[in-house]
Write a structure and sequence with these properties.
452 residues, 13 helices
Amino acid sequence: MKVVLIAFTLVCVVLKAGSEPPHYFFENDAAAAPGPPPLMVPLTLIQGAASKGAVCLDGTLPGYHFHPGSGSGANSWLIQLEGGGWCNTIRNCVFRKTTRRGSSKYMEKQLPFTGILSNKAEENPDFFNWNRVKVRYCDGASFTGDSQNEAAQLQFRGQKIWQAAMEELLYKGMQKANEALLSGCSAGGLASIIHCDEFRTLLPASTKVKCLSDAGFFVDAVDVSGGHTLRNLFGGVVNLQEVQKNLPKSCLNQLDPTSCFFPQNLINHVDTPLFLLNAAYDAWQVQESLVPRSADPHGYWNDCKSNHARCNSSQIQFLQDFRNQMLNDMKGFSGTSQSGLFINSCFAHCQSERQDTWFADDSPLIKNVPIAIAVGDWYFDRKTIKAIDCPYPCDNTCHNLVFNAGKSAVVDYQSSSDDTSTMTMIYSRSTRLTFSTGLYILSVLLPITWSS
């Protein structure tokens, strides 16, 4: 059977010596596998948003992609909050506003709806005919900031964008929803945790409301040098964009605002039923939280980071310790009756929007159950889902990300006046994966920014 290699694009911003590590992120954007084309859904800008102060980093209107439901799903709503990292300094927020993650001027005019957004029953058995919405991400703080920087002409209005999008969707019929699911991937997965209870309050008491966080469980972990790279990043985001205004008061009464931006400290403050879908060896966290370039300046981890099969025993043990910390941080949450878990032992990131990982012939499994079925069983109360995989390397169903950095080709190079360069590199994904007709794989593509 022919092996299909999927290109993963990584945009790196190369800065002068002394810069911070890159804060890059994976996401699912363009279909790449052969077969019938996926549903393409146009971008809608929220025309009244500016008058409410709900604008992207550069002041442009926020937007979303909406495909209406039908039949039994006509009054059911699935909201997907887009992911795409964060910006934690003025400098990288200024860069970000020149991309689709900071300005609707650069957003794609249409996006493919695959995975949990697919309109095909064979690809998305429980949610295919729901009203499905993807809310675009252009604030850099997981839809939570509320401030501005006039000197840099930056608007940090994530909370207002969230509110404007919800108002628009309520007007379009969501206020009559019988069923609703708030989901998100990566930074959007964190946003779905933060906004879960607020989402519940927007809908009638009779509406069945639940939330799904995909690859949004970012752990407050120590990196390989003993530092706190992710805590430093989150601290910058929280302080710059005044995120504390929109974090749970019950958490802020106990912990500092940066700690309350970490899911491990948020999940026990969420009353609405919540499902955590996460890879135990989350590829983004391995690359940028556990082993950022700043923590491994000599590149001892380069081979292991690019392909987990090249990790030595001590590196594997470090990764196992990270998995154990993640599971320990979920322990109290997992014991609640309404929570759901699907924690597979994969080197992956974002598994709900990609067709190959959501629901396909060879999707990742835990006890022979694919992700889409587990989430559906949990949402509709068909089964209790507390699926935690055995540790690596026991799971041979994973769709692991492999970064062949040493063999990658530079396909774009661009310099700017402030000694900043942009380099686009292509990484291939795991060669284990094969595909049957009709399955779609979404690439990962997004600017990576950091500040000096």
